[in-house]
Amino acid sequence: MSNMSPPQSGPSMPQEPWRVREAAKRNKKIRFNALLHHVRTSFLRDCFNALKRQAAPGVDGVTWQEYEQDVENRLTGLQNRIHRGTYRAQPSRRVYIPKADGRQRPLGIAALEDKIVQQAVVILLEQIYEEEFLGFSYGFRPGRGPHAALDALTVSIERMPVKWILDADIRGFFDNVDHEWVMRFVQHRVADRRILRLIQKWLKAGVSENGQWSETKMGMPQERWSHP
After folding, report:
1. What confidence score (pLDDT) does residue 109 get?
2. Is-contact 199 208, C-beta < 8 A?
3. pLDDT digit string (tens) for 146-192?
4. C-alpha distances in angstroms, 218 versus 129, 197, 215?
């Protein structure tokens, strides 16, 4: 599973997910028990179109261009598998990118269909959690990015009597995420067992490195999301 961090501006939004946003806005404690029915072919098409066209393929070896060649039939079949419960998550392909300090950051490249379904679930979850996030939160939120955060920080420094700034990072955060706590956290607001099963599938799908599969008992592959 990727860290489910969406692009900074999502795909065109079908009407029904907005109803989830309105319900979350009216009642901050409501638990949603019917979310998966929003995942329809048209919604999946928007999610597919939002993916980066030139992204490296996952373990399936399928590129965006190859999937596009028969996209309607593929997405119809994907929708049917999701709703029948026969959709299977594939392991993420492990790659490494260099960090500024000389170390390497592990990334997980998901299979194309996993990216599509993850994007759909991310958008649905956003409708719930965006009503809870505070205005000064910028990390991995739609329509917000590091440049907007820097702009807000600059304004605060110039207009307020700031005496100190704390720069902190959680070392190896995505490598050490506790799966059980992730599920407990999500279940505070999500009661749809089908959505919860999808998340569990991604958490347990494992990673593939040099053709060797390994189980992920904790942590989750981190993947960069971006738009074309």
Report:
1. 94
2. no
3. 899 999 989 989 999 988 888 888 888 888 899 999 999 999 999 99
4. 23, 17, 9
Please state, for a pLDDT cut of 90, what percent of the chain lies above it. 60
Q: Minimal CA–CA distance to 126: which of 2, 3, 10?
A: 10
Spatial CA neighbour of 170 closest among 130, 204, 134, 139: 139
What are 9-66's pLDDT values in tens digits?
444 555 567 889 999 999 988 999 999 999 999 999 999 999 999 999 999 999 999 9
Strands 207-209 and 92-98: parallel
Distance of CA 164 to the CA centre of its chain: 33
What pTM value is reported for the model? 0.84
Q: Are 120 and 47 in contact (CB under 8 A)?
A: yes
Instruction: Give the confidence band of 144 by pLDDT, cuts at 50, 70, 90.
Output: confident
Extract the runs of DSSP E, i.e. beta strands, from the chain.
Answer: 92-98, 104-109, 207-209, 212-214
Going from the C-alpha of 118 to that of each of 82, 148, 204, the distances in angstroms are 12, 25, 14
How far does the chain reach from its first CA to its final CA, in angstroms?
21
Q: Give the pair of three-digit tokens for residue 152.
A: 């807000």
Q: Which residues contact 177 (CB under 8 A, 6 or more apart)?
A: 218, 219, 220
Give the pLDDT score at 16.
62
- N residues, the chain: 228
Rounded to the nearest 5 percent, the helix, strand and coil shares of the chain are 45, 10, 50
Per-residue b/e over 116-139, b at no fewer than 16 CB within 10 Å? bbbbbbbbbbbbbeebeeeeeebe
